[in-house]
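User: My collaborator sent over this chain with a note saying "see what the structure looks like." That's all I know about it. Can you take a look?
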Amino acid sequence: RPLVANESISFFSQRSNACSQSPTPPARSMTYDGNIKNKDLLALREYVTHDSGSLNKADSTVQLMVTHSNLKARFMEIRFDRYMTILRVKEKLMTHVGSNVSTMRLVLKDWDGTTVSELGDDSKMLGYYSPEDGWTIHIIDVDTNSMSANGWLEDVSKVKKYMMSDEDYEAREGTYRQWKMEQLAKDPTWCLEKAMAEKRGEVWVPPAAPIEDDEHQAEEASAITVGMRAEINPGGKRGEVKFVGKCETLPKGWWIGIQFDEPVGKNDGSAKGKRYFECPDGYGSFQRPVNVQVGDFPPVDDFDFSDDEI
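Assistant: Without extra context I'll predict from the sequence alone. Here is the result:
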């Protein structure tokens, strides 16, 4: 029968009390300790990874990581029910890792990787071991002949691949090699980049030949010294000259190392592992001398408005 007003209030009050008394897992720190240092990127990461509760789960559900003694892969947040027996847990894990149920040893670890318990009794329920979200089940495969052993499930180099001889490939019709030879016969300068540019309606410009002159742009570099203010064009970015010289880890010729006034660079004064000058990460750049104009280029003040500006 439909609930009357007083009964409805009583019913929902009881439901509210029951929910408020249900056990909740202890709070734990989720502090990020990775490589992202930019505050805006960290804020974006927190927004994207925030648990809004939209993916609701039952009270008996627990999300666990899974690792394997023979595999490098780490399986993230697999859902288990605390009322599942350990045998049923093994059967579910078998579909992820390929190990036979009878050869699995399961070890439950907490957030820090500390062993909590070995899940050795197949008849017990998972909830008996009180797992929490984010804990890990580590699988030890005791079968030396397991198909997961020695990288057989991950190392593709162990898989025999079909190899076609050049003679068999040449005999095939409609191959890319055959089409390429036809295009070269029509136009000796043909290349795939040129064909794609023409398809887009663009004029294809051949790439410049590699620079072989070790003194490339030496004359332009002679007018630039460390400490000068500079503006880089194209782009109009300003900064200070920190390095003038040749870089053994970059193409031949002379280079100018710039520390920009703003984080619009690509490095911290190093190139391919070798350092040429010191500056904060994201402020450094290496430019050809022809792109560097030195002179009175003070840092741009975004708030320096003239009287004619609003």
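A starting point for your reply to your collaborator: The longest strand covers residues 71-81.
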